Fold these 2 entries.
Entry 1:
Amino acid sequence: MYRKTGKRVIDVFLSICGLIVCAIPMLIIAILIKMDSKGPVLFKQERLGKDQKIFTIYKFRSMCQGAYEIGGIVKRSDDKRITRVGAFLRRTSLDELPQMFNIIRGDMAIVGPRPILPWEFYDYQNNSRYCRRYDVLPGLFCSIDIDYRASADRNLQFEMDAEYARNITFFNDLKLFSGVIKTVISGKNVYCEEIQKK
């Protein structure tokens, strides 16, 4: 029941509440982005969603305009394409706030596998286990975020995503959400250089 309807109802309700609560902070962030560098406030990009269907994800822009076309994915904290405001947004994950609109639209969930670029899954399309990550909506947060965030390699991420998709429960989502909040507050593992050895 939770997997089929409850999760979606809770996601929409919390996202609407989140947008109301965060309306003023989001407005301030938008102003700071415009003051800090040229370009749009929002960053839009195509990602793979449920059933491997492409959708447009929204984020606050944290890099200079056209940064992805210049150098691809950011892997280091000293990447010159990251703006001053963007560095703070990435460290605190505040750049992800606009994805609440994606959740309301039905593109994403609060908890689920993080949506990746289409080409990042090309080498794994024949892996039936990894493909299970697309049985569910991608999430604002996922299980990999608790210990690794952006520092994890793809195999570990996809393995954890597949396990999450197989075992979705309210209590598991609540546990993951609580754990991710602690990780985000700590500001660790935002970049690949920050791999934490356990």
Entry 2:
Amino acid sequence: MKAQNVYLGIDVGTSGTKVLAINGEGKILASGVGEYPCYAPKPLWSEQDPEDWWQAVVKVVPEVLAKGGIKGSDVKAIGLSGQMHGSVFLDKSDRVIRPAILWNDQRTEAECKEIEEAVGGRSRLIELVGNPAMSGFTAPKILWLRNNEPENFDKVAKILLPKDEIRRRLTGEYATEVSDASGMLLLDVANRRWSKELLSALQLDETLFGRVYESEDVTGRLTASAAEAIGLTTDCVVVGGAGDCAAGAVGAGVVREGALSTSLGTSGVVFAHSDSAHYDPLGRVHTFCHAVRGKWHMMGVTLSAAGSLQWFRNALCQELYAQAKASRRDVYEILSDEASKSPTGSDGLFFLPYLSGERTPHADPTARGCFIGLTLAHDRGRIARSIMEGVTYSLREAVEIFRSLGTTVSEVRASGGGAKSGFWRQLQADVFNARVATLSSEEGPAYGVALLAAVGGGDYSSVVEACDATLSEASSVSPNEEANRYYNAAFPVYQGLYRALKENFREIASLS
């Protein structure tokens, strides 16, 4: 019998590393997760030990091989994904100098201002790298190290992203790829290479960073020691892979113009494929290179998406929650059902989902959640519906920016906890005026980079071909014309509420 080609996707997440194995037809053979801690040595700091990531890989890869009955010699290629923006600082002997500073670390406000001033302002920075300076990105972390730990900065020989540290451990190569590198705030996103002008302005040498590849390109081959450690062979190659958002989009088939993905977890993410590099001059949405060769994507984030409904459950629906548990029902199914039976527009009730401040399009940490339009007629179902409508309006704000910049949005792939609600999927279709589909399997970034490995391994000629061959829809809904007309009329009212309350939010924040 001919040996099957097997491909691994390794996703280095914040809470754990997921390893997933597929065959050349995209069938999932086995998966596993290795968990590890995250550290907060000071308020607003977030760090991890890169050794924990590697030990998770060493532990979980052999477990997945055993679970799937896979021979190590059958694994032809590995794709890497991971948490974006993190910084691994290595000395000239490849020793980690200090714990990695993560994407959700907030210590770099001063360095963000320093970066913008170094190039002559925010607008010029967006022209250079497609995005404004934000505390989560990698470049501010590098400057923070130089400003606050100069003795450590002086030791730095290489700076890698989390997944690219695993690549180094696997192959010995210093490399990255365009989608993850876009989130460092150092890549010329339009031209898919390091920005020489920005590096010069920040007095950073390009040799500090790895070579930049496209996502399905082979970046190296397993070393003998790495192959032995994880039970594979030195014939196995490692492809570029992708940052977790782009990898998840590949896994959802968002790989051609017109396609957009929405993920409704605690936060909400909208991700649109684009054939061209469109920048928002105001920096309200992100523009990064996609994991599809020569393509880009735009992205927006709502900080409290399904998290807003979770807050409602925890704060105001404890009795219902207890009843649902006792009857073995999902309380979210009950809330979704009650919302679906409430009138479109929740009888004039609007919800602003700024329970954690906001990121897109306002980037306002002082923003606060609001119910506006409450009357004696509003019951639990109408309130639940207003929350779901408000979150969806928030996502539409990013979608409208995409459209205004020339990106087409005609089809949505929905995922995350919120996508389990048929009502919320229909609501997205009605608010976005686009067909909304779910996939038969939702495995996230690990599956997306396993497909990239299958392309790099030669089973497919392109990422688009791989997605078309392996992904299938489970369900779809189309917009309801009457509901869409209502939401088109109500959406500008929703947008006006933030503008009207913006200064009040700041005053409230100053009081507390």
